[in-house]
């Protein structure tokens, strides 16, 4: 059972609060599947990726459940990610639209 695995720590907190307050080690992988770490708190989240590590997001292709105007936010996010000097980006036109960034330094 996952709850008994010493390698796992479950945290239940507002994601944005946790990102802003976290001051521990960087991560090999961050999968940002919610607003915090993706559309908000992006700069801090990207700082938490180790060199050689991965930042992954999904739902970057238009979705039928997107609210009006969300496509503009998604496009702005992609533009911001493309401009990250310390990352290489790969957009996968697959499933819901997967974006994988690898930190280079």
Structure description:
The chain is an alpha+beta fold. It has a domain of 42 residues. It is 25% helix and 26% strand. It has three helices and four strands. Strands 1-2-4-3 form a four-stranded mixed beta sheet. The longest helix is centred in the C-terminal third of the chain and has 13 residues. The termini are far apart. The mean pLDDT is 95.
Features:
105 residues; 25% helix; globular; 4-stranded mixed sheet; alpha+beta
Secondary structure elements and pairings:
Elements: H1 15-21, E1 27-32, H2 42-47, E2 49-57, H3 70-82, E3 87-92, E4 98-103
Parallel strand pairs: 1-2
Antiparallel strand pairs: 2-4, 3-4
Mean pLDDT: 95
Distance between the termini: 36 Å
Outline type? globular
Over all CA atoms, what is the radius of gyration? 15 Å
List unreliable stretches of 5+ residues: none
Query: What order do the helices and strands follow?
Result: HEHEHEE
Order of strands, widest sheet: 1-2-4-3
Could you say which structural class the secondary elements and strand pairing correspond to? alpha+beta
The count of DSSP E runs of length 2 or more, i.e. the number of strands, is 4
Alpha plus pi helix count:
3
The residue fraction in helices comes out at: 10-25%
Summed up:
With 105 residues, the chain is of the alpha+beta class. 25% of the residues lie in helices and 26% in strands.
């Amino acid at each position: 059972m996952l709850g008994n695995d010493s390698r796992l720590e479950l945290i239940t907190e507002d994601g944005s609060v946790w990102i802003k307050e976290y001051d521990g080690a960087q991560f090999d992988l961050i999968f940002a599947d919610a607003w915090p770490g993706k559309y908000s708190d992006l700069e801090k989240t990207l700082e938490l990726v180790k060199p050689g590590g991965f930042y992954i997001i999904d739902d970057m292709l238009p979705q039928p459940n997107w609210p009006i105007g969300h496509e503009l936010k998604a496009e702005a996010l992609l533009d911001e990610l493309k401009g990250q000097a310390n990352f290489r980006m790969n957009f996968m036109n697959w499933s819901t639209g997967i974006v994988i960034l690898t930190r280079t330094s």
